[in-house]
């Protein structure tokens, strides 16, 4: 899965870091060798420190707090089906506050600037028509965060 994803997305060597827990599959030597061959850096959470990967923790919270999340799944297939639907919604429809109220798909597919520009035009039109509705001045769409880290690199300002 990782090798296919790296190839499909055209990930260049030494540009990707995969952060994982310390589970046996993610800590295995075969995976470490494959990641090294792909030029992918791997990092691991500290043992017994669940908040080392806040993005993953936030996604699990979003999953568990969905109104349609069942108390329990009747079968493995039901759980898989639920997750398929959840990940489609999460990536294609859910607007994330941490990425300018865009969907991950918009950002991944390079549509962020276009969507933000369209939002700015709409806000400018609304402001021009009714400036009294905006006591704080001209509204601006939320900006897209340019850099995100789990652990900030030492050479980053």
From TrEMBL:
Pfam family, one: rve_3
Molecular function (Gene Ontology), one example: nucleic acid binding
Domain Integrase catalytic: 1-112
Any GO BP: DNA integration
Segments for region (Disordered): 131-157
Record protein name field: Transposase
Species: mine drainage metagenome
